[in-house]
Request: fold
Amino acid sequence: MHHHIPNNLKPMLEHMKNMDAIVVGPGLEKAKHSSDAVIEVIRMGKKNKKPLILELDEYFYTEGIFRELANYSEPGVIVMLNSKEFEKVYPSIRTKEGFSDAHVSIDFDSLGPNILIYRKGCVDMAFTKYPADSWS
Reply:
């Protein structure tokens, strides 16, 4: 998805239906219409069973985004976070109440089996709903 999001998403979403996979980010402008566009892309990918990779600023990881990701169809979603973003976003995903500095509070189990959270850093780590599938 291009860093500048057009006002009319329909042509872009129609074009994405023909793609093998969808990658969103990095570098999207931090504006309300950008968040809305990301949600529309997630919905289209889920409906059309497209693999999705999200590499967004922590600003985008809201409860609305995670609600849309919940029960994403196979082949699934990879959510990529750098270590700083991970420290803010992941603790609130793995517990229902989250931490005081986190702006998202979501139950990780509610995301479903097709979501992988990937932490980029000195030591890369991957987390899924199933602990046996997680690694570092």
